Amino acid sequence: MATKIKTVYFCQNCGYESSKWMGQCPGCREWNTFVEETVKPQPKSSSKSLGSGSKGSLSGDYSKPLSLSEIILNEEERADTHIGELNRVLGGGLVKGSLILVGGDPGIGKSTLLLQVAGNLSADNKDILYVSGEESLRQIKLRAERIGKFSESLKFMCETNLSNIEEAIVRSKPEIIIIDSIQTMYNETVASAPGSVSQVRESTGVLLRIAKSMNISVFIVGHVTKEGQVAGPRVLEHMVDTVLYFEGDRHASYRILRAVKNRFGSTNEIGVFEMQEKGLVEVANPSEFMLDGRPENASGSVVTCSVEGTRPILIEVQALVTHTNFGFPRRQANGTDYNRVNLLMAVLEKRIGLSLGDYDAYVNLAGGMKVAEPSLDLGICLAIISSFRNKPISDDVVAFGEVGLSGEVRSVNMAESRVMEAAKLGFKTCIVPKALEGKLKGTCKNIEIIGVSSVADAMKVI
Predict the structure, then answer these.
(1) Alpha carbon distance 19, 36 (integer Å)
(2) Rounded to two decimals, what is the model's pTM?
(3) Residues 300 and 318: beta-carbon distance below 8 Å
(4) Which of 89, 349, 377, 398 has the fewest C-beta atoms under 10 angstroms from its C-beta?
(5) CA quadruple 404, 408, 413, 416: dihedral positive or negative?
């Protein structure tokens, strides 16, 4: 009897399945996300669970319920990638048996970073399998020769059929697998084309089973959409243990690796890299890197301090306020929240008396950082005031603090670390919220602490 093939519709955002096309997804409430796919029903078959005691499984205890007292809690076994910035983002190293998704724009450096990781780990005599569905072996070798030398324990394979990949994994038993990319892989049991919602979901499920049952660390590369999200269903990010995003302009030298999900560490840490001829190089001092090339005695420029995880980073906030030639002034923000900038400009108009209704305003965070932390509020306000009045702020001044709707400057966390970072780079004055002034007075003798209770007070100081 011939197997009947049916047509279903999947939401590209969340993976919701429907028998008919709908304009709005009932699951995630997004519009125009349904795509048509053909599904071939598979015969029912019994399958063993991950922990059924089969060869390569972690433990047979997964097949029965356990109380907390029966669960043995051991610290995760981590492998050093020999890339300090990546170790920081991962939470201290690569956890054995973890599934890691790496996303980013085309040409940003995902494959280069993973090839460097593979090279470093292979030097520790770890067996690694690098599977590419996008490049030929010759292309990979050309890139590898540019990066450096590699051990014989690193094996390469060009394949998109998951069945063949699984056979190679069972045969070679590697400790680490790199899949580049998940959108090119296909499962023969799924009738839809590679890259579709069904294929991405099922292929990730197979890799998840391999990672957990055989205790293998798996990296998978994912393409991103024009909105900056990993292409495929949202369930893909829920299935993996860690989600890493590469940020930055591929035509610039800097790259920022950010963890948006991490079951084995913090999601606030970032890693900063610089793209060079021989691959990605760690940036040991991101603050110095972000301030490189800062103009002297320029209006609309002020240095503020953000905290990413446990690391304070100094960032230059630039603002340009100019008279508009149109009836409706233009507002633009690069690196920070556009709506937050509009809110701060409204505070300046109401509380300070700046007449910004006839002026275009552009705010930029130099260095390519994307920060939504409220501690940048005071720096953004001072940069806008400086540009509006065309009066530069001293180059040795750092300012941070959250600004409320009444124009008050509120406290922020990790203030001591921010002040120490500013002092380390030679800044002489730090403008902080008034509530933190007494606490920070004795933090460092080489920097003057000035507390302000409102934006008006800060404006008088500068």
Answers:
(1) 10
(2) 0.76
(3) yes
(4) 349
(5) positive
